[in-house]
């Protein structure tokens, strides 16, 4: 028999990661060796014969894998695998595979499986990685130079102004005035045929003594240079300087989709972080700070489209927030006068961890050197109110939980903060802890380091090796669990219920933040940034190297998915959210994301074992 | 059909058979009748022919795939092209086999010897088996110079019975292989040749068995009606 005669089966197998990496002859051999079985819901479980391990490839139907505690580990649909752990380890597995919907399953025997692992490194690596739940994909997330790699689509204005070729120049000028733009695209029969700019109106109409009834096509620049929306900004800059032009129509599939102007490019460059921070530091009024802060969303989009590492994006955005906060404090101090005592502006939560993303809210507080008298109280009340409302106007909305320096509850002296933390640590009630977990990711944005250190040192001394507190924090962080992944087109929670998408923040990164925090507090580590916490934990041998790398990778991968998803939402004018719809993901990304969630789940089991065992 | 009736028929056929291979075949079929269908060795088959009339038309190709312990074994699947007299003519539009493909074909005699050897000890499975069996019986009868009668599980007949029992109105084409498979959520196999159709038929039988049995075992004789 010739394997090409098994075409429908070969086609299916070839479409699966990692079988897509096999050579044609290897793939043929693989398909010829398959056997085909059918599992019916009526028989409840797939009979897994320990003496006959197989790689099971789901062709149709639905299955779920549960461990011996009955916990749901995975939901499987078309193109998913099971049975490989025992193939790789040779050990018997206690997992059970329940049949949810009748299904056809291809079986790959151990000899062929081993042959494929020898033939293809990618094949071997895929199953080893799936087995070890390891993730490594750093190369993909290397940051690139911004201006040279960002795309035209990230800077151009969408919905370009359009006018018909038979219109008059005065109509065109009116349209441009209404839209407050300096150019209009001229369309003939749905096709772009020219562009009319301010300069054309000046040179070809006014300077020539023409009146407003002149048809557009006699004044426009015909057959203008165009680019497609996925061209690089760099190419646009080249084209503009070569031809001495300032406007580029952006055309996809012969359809005008936007205009890119030299001002857009300039604005894009000025939204680079260092320039932006420099600009913030030069502003002398709230109004000008507000207008500068309008560039922050653009900065985020640029960073996303440049494929920067998620960790770096978080740090860059947070340093902009920090700069803005500092500038607001300084500006308000100019109005209110010198502070009556030393103080620190504290950042909590995502700003504390330096992983801010789009639409962050405020989480801040004030640390005073000592108890304030009435006058000092009034001073700090005025200062914090001004800074918090300034931040709000710059796009950092008020904290819904009211964790803000303007709230007198979070404007405390050193000893008050110390006893506040001590009470959280010593009577760890679940609700208070959930609230308090925000406070443990704490950083000083403004003020003397020594003052902040005396708070942090005291807090860490309380938490370090404090079993009861750590058990409480751990239980708290186990309330949420990562989603199981993608089952057909749906996303399922670990208890099997269906949700509208994957909440990458609350079911992914927030859980990793929790895990890193518990470990860091248990060891008295000062770092608050999650990636740095994990690194220190690895260096101190508190988490073993492999687990630490996996956790850091999973954190980066999920954060990257979240950011690129938000980038997608932004470019498609959808509301920005943390929800990812799995249906557009490639099979590889689907597998990687699933692996990342498995890492999170395993790390949760890890802290559960380590910190809650004695309770 | 009753197991005893079937058994006595097979006994008689074995007694009448002049060729040893034929005798072995009939004896083998007898012992299969005792088994649960999940345990019985099966052989799913499909033929491509030049037409639908076994008297005048000829076999072009035969695809077979064994089913052991409820699994189709693709490594033992085989596909044979068979030499014909004359040209494939118009039928090429249906099966896609052209005259020049038949260069690697075996003679009808070789095909029949090969086929009988492959079905020893196995129960045949086909979709709309009477048609395939008519061609095979004619081929074997010519080869052995005596009347040969084959037995097979017919997935179309099973499907028809199941639908009738559910009081379904049978729509035109509802019993075709693809339509029947769709009812069990089995994948669509686009390319058609005798081998893929044999596999498709085998998979359909597995799905049917699980639907009939509801987790209980099904006697092979229950399917031979």
List the helices and strands and how they pair.
The complex is a heterodimer of chains A (615) and B (225).
Chain A: H1 7-14, H2 24-32, E1 35-39, E2 55-58, E3 62-66, E4 72-76, E5 81-82, H3 84-89, E6 96-101, E7 103-108, H4 110-119, H5 121-132, H6 146-149, E8 157-158, E9 162-164, H7 169-179, E10 183-188, E11 191-197, H8 198-206, H9 216-219, E12 221-222, H10 233-243, E13 247-252, E14 255-261, H11 262-270, H12 273-282, H13 286-293, H14 296-305, H15 310-336, E15 343-347, H16 349-353, E16 364-368, H17 374-393, E17 411-413, H18 414-426, H19 430-436, E18 443-446, H20 449-463, H21 467-477, E19 485-487, E20 490-492, E21 498-499, E22 502-503, H22 505-523, H23 530-539, H24 545-571, E23 579-580, H25 587-612
Parallel strand pairs in A: 9-10, 16-17
Antiparallel strand pairs in A: 1-7, 2-5, 2-7, 3-4, 3-6, 8-14, 10-11, 11-12, 13-14, 15-16, 15-18, 19-20, 20-21, 22-23
Helix pairs in contact in A: 4-5, 12-15, 14-15, 15-17, 18-20, 21-22, 21-25, 22-23, 22-24, 22-25, 23-24, 24-25
Chain B: H1 3-16, H2 20-32, E1 42-49, E2 59-68, E3 71-73, E4 78-81, H3 92-95, H4 108-118, E5 123-126, H5 129-144, E6 152-154, H6 155-165, H7 177-183, H8 194-213, H9 220-223
Parallel strand pairs in B: 1-5, 5-6
Antiparallel strand pairs in B: 1-2, 2-3, 2-4
Helix pairs in contact in B: 1-2, 4-5, 7-8
- Summarize the helix and strand pattern of chain B as letters: HHEEEEHHEHEHHHH
Biggest interface and which pair forms it?
Answer: A-B, 29 and 31 residues
The strand count of chain B comes to 6
Annotation, overall tally of beta strands of chain A: 23
What fraction strand of chain A?
A: 15-25%
| Largest sheet features of chain B | 6 strands, mixed
- Mean of the pLDDT scores of chain B? 88
**Rg of chain B (C-alpha, Å):** 17 Å
Question: Tally the helices of chain A: what do you get?
Answer: 25
Head-to-tail CA distance between termini of chain B: 5 Å
Supply the number of structural domains of chain A. 3
Approximate shape of chain B: globular
* Overall spatial form of chain A: flat
How many helical elements of chain B? 9
Assembly status:
heterodimer
Q: Uncertain spans of chain B, ≥5 residues at pLDDT below 50? A: none
Strand order of the largest sheet of chain A: 1-7-2-5
**Class per helix and strand makeup of chain A:** alpha+beta
Q: Kindly state the mean pLDDT of chain A as a whole number? A: 85
Unreliable spans of chain A: 134-148
Largest sheet: number of strands, sense, barrel closure of chain A: 4 strands, antiparallel
Keywords (chain A): CBS domain, Repeat, Transferase
Domain Cyclic nucleotide-binding (chain A): 18-134
Organism (chain A): Shewanella woodyi (strain ATCC 51908 / MS32)
Protein name (chain A): Putative CBS domain and cyclic nucleotide-regulated nucleotidyltransferase
